[in-house]
Amino acid sequence: MRHLITTDDLSVEEIKNLFNDAESYLDTPPPKLLQNRLIITLFFENSTRTRSSFEIAAKKLGADVVHLDVAKSSTKKGETLYDTAANLNAMGPDAIIVRHAQSGTPYQISRHVDCAIFNAGDGAHAHPSQALLDLFTIRRHFKGELEGKRIAIVGDIKNSRVANSNMRLLPRFGLKITLVAPPHFMPKTDFPSTTKLNDVLDEVDIIMSLRTQTERHSHPIYASLKDYASDYCITKEKIGKRDILLLHPGPVHRNIDIDDEMLADPRCKVLEQVKNGVAVRMAALKKLILANG
C-alpha cells in the first residue's frame, strides 16, 4: 500500500495490524519512528479535528510538519493544483496530507508525487482515516466482537464522505448498516433504509449521527435546521435507557445532530473518537511512510 485514498487501499489484515499499533499507542508513549521525516499538510477546506489530529499524530512520532497556507499559496495566483503538488514533491516530503472540496483530488495528486498521499477528505467521496477511527472505537467498545452488530447511520448521508467511507468499510468487518435520513438526504443505495429514526431504535447497537452538510447543499433544504432536528436529533428522550453506542465525526451541531444531554451521556463516544483518531492516524502514518522508505 503506497497511499491512503480510500479504505479499500487496506486489506482486512492490514487494518487489524494497524489497529494493534494504534492500541499500543493509546497505552504507552510511542518511539520516534518518524524522526527526520517531513510531512506537509495541504488543506483546501477548513478543518480543526482532522488537521490537528494528523499534525499531533505526526509530531508524537517525531516527524516535522509543515502546513501550507492555501489562502496565501501559489494556487491563488493561478498555479494549477498539480504544479503545486509537483513543486512540493520536489522539496522531498515523506507524505502529503490533502483535504479538498473536489472528489478525486487526492488521487490525482498521488499521480504527480513520489511520497505517500493521505486523503483527509475529498468532497462527498471519502474520509478513510475517519472511518478507520470509527471502526477502531466500535471494535474497542465491543472488545473485538463485531460480527452481526447493527449500526444506523443517521442524517445527511448523501453529502457525507464519512458515511461513504463507513458504508464501504464496516460491512467488511461484519457490521450490518441501516441508513436513516429524509428522502433528500438519502443516496441511491442497496442498504436497508428508512426515513424514521424510531424504526431502528429497538434494533441497533450503534448510532452514527452525521452533521448536516449545509455547505454542500445547492439550495436550502429546510427552512430551519430545527425542523430537521425534530425528526433526526439524537435525544435522551428518544434513546431512553437503550444500550446504544453513539458516535459522531464532528463538528457536532448541538441540539441539531445530538442534544446536550446525550453529548454528556457515557454512551456517547465523540471525545473518545477524537482520542482514538490520533492513535489510528499515528499507525497509518507509520505504516505508509516506513513502507515507502
UniProtKB/TrEMBL annotation:
<comment type="pathway">
    <text>Pyrimidine metabolism; UMP biosynthesis via de novo pathway; (S)-dihydroorotate from bicarbonate: step 2/3.</text>
</comment>
<dbReference type="InterPro" id="IPR006131">
    <property type="entry name" value="Asp_carbamoyltransf_Asp/Orn-bd"/>
</dbReference>
<feature type="binding site">
    <location>
        <position position="49"/>
    </location>
    <ligand>
        <name>carbamoyl phosphate</name>
    </ligand>
</feature>
<dbReference type="InterPro" id="IPR006132">
    <property type="entry name" value="Asp/Orn_carbamoyltranf_P-bd"/>
</dbReference>
<dbReference type="GO" id="GO:0016597">
    <property type="term" value="F:amino acid binding"/>
</dbReference>
<feature type="binding site">
    <location>
        <position position="99"/>
    </location>
    <ligand>
        <name>carbamoyl phosphate</name>
    </ligand>
</feature>
<feature type="binding site">
    <location>
        <position position="250"/>
    </location>
    <ligand>
        <name>carbamoyl phosphate</name>
    </ligand>
</feature>
<feature type="binding site">
    <location>
        <position position="77"/>
    </location>
    <ligand>
        <name>L-aspartate</name>
    </ligand>
</feature>
<dbReference type="GO" id="GO:0006520">
    <property type="term" value="P:amino acid metabolic process"/>
</dbReference>
<comment type="subunit">
    <text>Heterododecamer (2C3:3R2) of six catalytic PyrB chains organized as two trimers (C3), and six regulatory PyrI chains organized as three dimers (R2).</text>
</comment>
<feature type="binding site">
    <location>
        <position position="130"/>
    </location>
    <ligand>
        <name>carbamoyl phosphate</name>
    </ligand>
</feature>
<keyword id="KW-0808">Transferase</keyword>
<feature type="binding site">
    <location>
        <position position="211"/>
    </location>
    <ligand>
        <name>L-aspartate</name>
    </ligand>
</feature>
<keyword id="KW-0665">Pyrimidine biosynthesis</keyword>
<dbReference type="GO" id="GO:0004070">
    <property type="term" value="F:aspartate carbamoyltransferase activity"/>
</dbReference>
<dbReference type="GO" id="GO:0006207">
    <property type="term" value="P:'de novo' pyrimidine nucleobase biosynthetic process"/>
</dbReference>
<dbReference type="InterPro" id="IPR006130">
    <property type="entry name" value="Asp/Orn_carbamoylTrfase"/>
</dbReference>
<dbReference type="GO" id="GO:0044205">
    <property type="term" value="P:'de novo' UMP biosynthetic process"/>
</dbReference>
<feature type="binding site">
    <location>
        <position position="127"/>
    </location>
    <ligand>
        <name>carbamoyl phosphate</name>
    </ligand>
</feature>
<dbReference type="GO" id="GO:0005829">
    <property type="term" value="C:cytosol"/>
</dbReference>
<dbReference type="Pfam" id="PF00185">
    <property type="entry name" value="OTCace"/>
</dbReference>
<feature type="binding site">
    <location>
        <position position="161"/>
    </location>
    <ligand>
        <name>L-aspartate</name>
    </ligand>
</feature>
<feature type="domain" description="Aspartate/ornithine carbamoyltransferase Asp/Orn-binding">
    <location>
        <begin position="147"/>
        <end position="286"/>
    </location>
</feature>
<dbReference type="Pfam" id="PF02729">
    <property type="entry name" value="OTCace_N"/>
</dbReference>
<comment type="similarity">
    <text>Belongs to the aspartate/ornithine carbamoyltransferase superfamily. ATCase family.</text>
</comment>
<dbReference type="InterPro" id="IPR036901">
    <property type="entry name" value="Asp/Orn_carbamoylTrfase_sf"/>
</dbReference>
<dbReference type="InterPro" id="IPR002082">
    <property type="entry name" value="Asp_carbamoyltransf"/>
</dbReference>
<comment type="function">
    <text>Catalyzes the condensation of carbamoyl phosphate and aspartate to form carbamoyl aspartate and inorganic phosphate, the committed step in the de novo pyrimidine nucleotide biosynthesis pathway.</text>
</comment>
<feature type="binding site">
    <location>
        <position position="251"/>
    </location>
    <ligand>
        <name>carbamoyl phosphate</name>
    </ligand>
</feature>
<protein>
    <recommendedName>
        <fullName>Aspartate carbamoyltransferase</fullName>
        <ecNumber>2.1.3.2</ecNumber>
    </recommendedName>
</protein>
<feature type="domain" description="Aspartate/ornithine carbamoyltransferase carbamoyl-P binding">
    <location>
        <begin position="2"/>
        <end position="139"/>
    </location>
</feature>
<feature type="binding site">
    <location>
        <position position="50"/>
    </location>
    <ligand>
        <name>carbamoyl phosphate</name>
    </ligand>
</feature>
